[in-house]
Inverse folding.
């Protein structure tokens, strides 16, 4: 019986506990009736032990239930939702160990109030159905929490990158990084790189690359820029050098099979960004940036050129190094996709360090505040494109004061056309909470050239009057006010 799975041990323990409590027995009572020690019974109920058949017989007799019923994996009487969760792939993939949580501790919580936990789980399941949440939403949520817990800095990957570059230094005299990384893939890991490999597949044109393990073929989208190729090659080197076997074979995660797959995808991307923006050199650049006496957008654009990096790589690398080296831990990162034809905006990447900051994604199909530089810069990019201008990256800096709070953020935003998808534009925003730590580190914080605007999360929830860029009426605000009026009237009537 020792070969039982964790789920089987947990279910067995829950059934023993449920039956014992139904009979009003203490551990001592059940111990005396079954001949099993109190400590052993405790281990059983916590899901740590699964008794041998003869002991199960003694337990069943003491609990006055058939052995078959006790050994069944079916749960009833309010425990059914808990059983569904235990049997689900989601719980098996939940990365409890990354958060320092033992499964037995989770079981203790479940066993303490199984009906309440069951009701809570049923509520979560119902919410996930109503908002079309899938398993990968939970994986990505767990991954974001893991990154936030570590302030998005991973010493072991940084050390692996240093070890890799010691063995394979990227040299400025040997051409663009993409060419050097492609050569390493071919020579070190026997990759076949097919430059126009996705051209024959119209349905795959939104992907940057596809890796075919059979023959180690890497099919590239022909519309990739040099920096995008470099990042994809860096990721492939990360998968190989870090020996990350469980992986998706597409450049972006389309269907997540497990949490480990999502985690490995992140690790390979982190490796690539750290390879292309080395910590030592970029840390020195950040130091000079923070010590500027005035805001200078040209510096960010120069970094894109010098490091051959995308705006997303640049800002994500800043989220790695600013908390670790400069103590700026109160920050967030958002990536917006803009479809100009419909003027719709969607957040497809998000990170919050040290707390949940006010700017965040909204899954309720509401309209994000158009006062954010994240959106206003995308509108400016679209305007220039409609005029026929060739636009690379646009930069903005803004102080955003959140309505009804004391919180204010310094926002840096970069917007660019979305490659390889020509129908969208993308913006990335790094936001730093304006607090004493930022005031000490950032010299140009009070530069009068940086505009300051009062902002909110969505138009539907925003009571700011006379907003010239409002995209929707404040329906949520009005509904709340109507409820308050009803309550005031009822109180006046003494109801």
């Amino acid at each position: 019986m020792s070969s039982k799975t964790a789920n089987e041990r947990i279910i067995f323990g829950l059934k023993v506990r449920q039956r014992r409590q139904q009979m009003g027995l203490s551990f001592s009572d059940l111990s005396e009736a079954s001949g099993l020690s109190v400590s052993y019974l405790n281990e059983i109920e916590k899901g740590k032990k699964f008794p041998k058949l003869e002991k199960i017989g003694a337990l069943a007799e003491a609990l006055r239930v058939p052995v078959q019923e006790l050994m069944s994996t079916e749960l009833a009487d309010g425990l059914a939702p808990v059983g569904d969760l235990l049997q689900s792939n989601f719980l098996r993939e939940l990365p409890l160990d990354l958060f320092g949580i033992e499964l037995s501790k989770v079981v203790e919580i479940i066993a303490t109030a199984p009906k309440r936990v069951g009701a809570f789980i049923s509520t979560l399941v119902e919410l996930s159905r109503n908002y079309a949440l899938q398993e990968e939403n939970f994986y990505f949520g767990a991954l974001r929490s893991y990154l936030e817990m570590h302030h998005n800095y991973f010493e072991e990957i940084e050390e692996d990158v240093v070890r890799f570059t010691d063995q394979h230094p990227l040299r400025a005299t040997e051409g663009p990084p993409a060419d050097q990384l492609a050569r390493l893939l071919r020579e070190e890991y026997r990759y076949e790189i097919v430059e126009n490999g996705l051209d024959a597949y119209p349905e795959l044109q939104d992907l940057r690359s596809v890796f075919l393990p059979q023959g180690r073929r890497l099919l590239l989208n022909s519309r990739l820029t040099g920096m995008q190729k470099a990042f994809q090659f860096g990721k492939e080197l990360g998968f190989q050098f870090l020996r990350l076997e469980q992986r998706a074979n597409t450049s972006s995660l389309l269907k997540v099979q497990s949490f480990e797959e999502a985690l490995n995808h992140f690790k390979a991307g982190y490796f690539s960004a750290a390879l292309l923006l080395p910590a030592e050199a970029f840390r020195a650049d950040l130091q000079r940036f923070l010590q500027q006496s005035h805001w200078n957008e040209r510096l960010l654009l120069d970094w894109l050129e010098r490091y051959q990096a995308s705006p997303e790589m640049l800002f994500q690398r800043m989220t790695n190094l600013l908390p670790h080296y400069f103590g700026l831990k109160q920050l967030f990162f958002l990536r917006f996709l803009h479809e100009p034809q419909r003027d719709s905006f969607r957040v497809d990447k998000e990170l919050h360090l040290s707390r949940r900051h006010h700017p965040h994604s909204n899954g309720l199909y509401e309209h994000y505040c158009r006062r954010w530089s994240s959106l206003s810069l995308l509108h400016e990019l679209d305007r220039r494109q409609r005029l026929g201008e060739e636009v690379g990256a646009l930069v903005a800096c803004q102080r955003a004061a959140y309505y009804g709070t004391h919180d204010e953020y310094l926002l840096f935003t970069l917007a660019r056309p979305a490659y390889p998808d020509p129908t969208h534009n993308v913006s990335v925003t790094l936001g730093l909470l304006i607090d004493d730590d930022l005031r000490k580190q950032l010299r140009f914080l009070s530069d009068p050239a940086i505009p300051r605007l009062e902002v909110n999360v969505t138009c539907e929830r925003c009571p700011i009057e006379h907003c010239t860029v409002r995209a929707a009426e404040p329906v949520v605000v009005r509904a709340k006010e109507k409820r308050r009026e009803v309550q005031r009237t009822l109180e006046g009537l003494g109801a």
